[in-house]
Each structure stands twice: as structure tokens, then as C-alpha cells.
Amino acid sequence: MTDIDTLIDLLTRKGKLVAMLAPSFPIVFTYPGIITMLKSLGFTYTAEVAAGARVTNEQLTKLLSGHPDKRYITSPCPTLVRLIKRQLPQYSHYLTQGVDSPMIATAKIVKEKYPGYRPVFIGPCFVKKYEAREEAPELNILVLTYTELTQVFTHFNITDDVKRPEDHFDISISGLTKLYPLDGGLTKSGKVSDTLGKNAVKIVSGPARNIAAIKEFDADPSLRILDILNCDGGCIMGPGIQSKLTVDERKNKILSYFVQEESKLSGTTSAH
Ligand code: SF4
To answer: How far is the CA of 80 from the centre of ligand 1 (A)?
Structure first.
């Protein structure tokens, strides 16, 4: 059974489901139209993964301040984590331990707030399916890409015709973690350069640069952290996004959503 079939089956059986939308969603969907569509599909609640990203940042900050002598490679990108563990195991000690990815952190928030509900992560990346299964099986996260979700909408004949401007995320957050899918989104939203100094942080994205960047990081002790993502430009160019938009146009979609929503939310995780 594919993950599309699994979601269709769960929705048909009126399963208790929470949709968790990765912060790159504005490239593919409009807000709050996507919330209306997800609720029409049968999701009871919706969560913004930017909320979990705040937890990721807090955990990373704690790790950095608790271990001032150590250097780290960030690990929210499961493709990079697998690359290092399989092809470059001599560098795996740099991967952050005890720092949840935004997906896993959001699923933990969902499980605590809505016991008995299954988290469904919807994002730009099919490799997240492996992360969910292998690194957090106890959370039972179902992972679909945006492209797969679109097929589920088509199956149930859900369109964006219905407008309910009052719809909103049930779990959301204000602040810079909405910019997480841009390269450097983690360290910029976590203000890591403010703490460590900008020369201690290296930001890299793209498969052509990754391996060299990891080796350069290893060889340069002045760097405390390597913020690295596998896709060129970050998760905005993830393989689970079907879009003809350029990198800059995708960035602008993320920035527009950030500006649009920033004034509406308070400074903490909110549950409406
Ligand atoms: S950078 Fe690409 S491969 Fe890595 S998590 Fe984002 S979409 Fe997936």
C-alpha cells in the first residue's frame, strides 16, 4: 500500500488525523485556503511545522551553550544525515544529538495536545518518510509530499473553490522559523550567528557542494557549526514540490507568507 492509499483509507474510515504542514507549503498552496481544503478532506486539526522548528532551535542553542568546546553539523535534512552516516562515517560525530527535526518536534507537540490523533506530515521531501520510520517509529508519523497530497485532493474531488478566510492553523507560531526552508533558515531563525559570531557559522546547500563543505568544516576549527541542506537553495527546491517557479520566485512565496502572517500571531506557540 502506498502512503497515498494509506491516507485515503484513513480518511475514508474517518481516522483521527492532524495535518502538519512543512514551512515550504506556500510555494504550492495558498493560506488559509489550504486549511479549508485539509479540513474538507477530513483532518480534524492542522499544525504549522514552523512551530516545531522553534523547538529545534531551542534544543540546538542549549546544545551549543552546554558544549562550548564542540562543533556541529545540523541534522534536519535526512538526506544529509544518511549521506554522512553511510558515505562519510568519520564525520558522523559532528551530527547534533538530542536535537529533534522540525517534523519530529511538531509531531511531539501534536501528540501531547491531541492524544489519540495520528500526525500526518506533508512536505517537500520523500526522504522524510525514512526519517519518520527509522528515527521516530513511536510517533507513527505518516509522511506525504505536496505532490502526493494533491493526488489525495483529486481523489476526493477537493478543490480550492470554497473560501473560508477565518480558517487557520490550530498550532502555529510567529517568527523567523517560517523561513526555515530557505538555505541558512535554521541558523538565521535561531540567531546562531548572534551567539557564536558570524565567522563561526557556515551555510551550504546543494549536492554539488555538500561533501567538500563537510571536509572543509572538519579542517577548519574556527567553524562551530555547519548549517547544511541537500537541495540547492534549501527545502524550497525539494523533490516533493511540483512547481515551475524559479528559486527566487519560491523564496518570494515564503517571504510573502511570512510578512502576511507575522502581524497576526503573538510571539509564542498558539493553539486556537
Ligand atoms: S534540503 Fe532537500 S533533501 Fe533535505 S530535507 Fe529539504 S527537501 Fe529534503
So the answer is: 8
